[in-house]
Each structure stands twice: as structure tokens, then as C-alpha cells.
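testing teh design pipeline on a random one, pls ignore if ur not involved
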């Protein structure tokens, strides 16, 4: 878990974290508990790198995987059928 929280920080993840913190701060100032919960959820998703494609669940295949899929040869066998 610690490794997930400390690695792979990129612009989109930082932006989600900053937006989550901003929503929490604004909702505390406005005394709105629902938006505070939504902001905390946004920040937690960014911190733990979860949600949607953040965890890599819907990542596209790498160049090596695409190349391997194209160069794989599938041998097809045929069977002759006697017509009577």
C-alpha cells in the first residue's frame, strides 16, 4: 500500500489531489458536509491511486504486447471431407 501511495505521481493525479483538497477547504468554509465528503473521496482516490483507470486496470497494451500479438503465427489445419 505504501508503494502505491508514493509512486507514479503524475500531473492528473496531482490535479485530482489538489481539487479534492480545494473542495474540502471550500466546503468546510461553507459548512457543507456533503461536499466535504465528496472532496475527501476525491483526495483519497488520488492519494491511494484508485478509481477508474488510475490503477492501470484499463491500460492499453504496450508496444511489445501489440507487436507480439501481430507476429504470432496460428497454424490452421484442414480436414478433407469425402463427398458421397
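output:
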Amino acid at each position: 500500500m505504501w508503494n502505491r501511495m508514493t509512486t507514479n505521481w503524475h500531473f492528473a493525479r496531482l490535479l485530482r489531489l489538489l481539487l479534492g483538497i480545494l473542495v474540502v477547504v471550500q466546503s468546510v468554509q461553507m459548512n457543507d458536509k456533503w461536499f466535504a465528503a465528496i472532496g475527501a473521496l476525491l483526495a483519497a482516490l488520488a492519494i491511494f491511486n484508485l478509481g477508474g483507470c488510475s490503477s492501470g486496470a484499463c491500460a492499453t497494451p504496450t508496444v511489445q504486447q501489440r507487436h507480439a500479438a501481430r507476429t504470432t503465427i496460428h497454424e490452421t489445419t484442414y480436414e478433407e471431407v469425402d463427398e458421397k
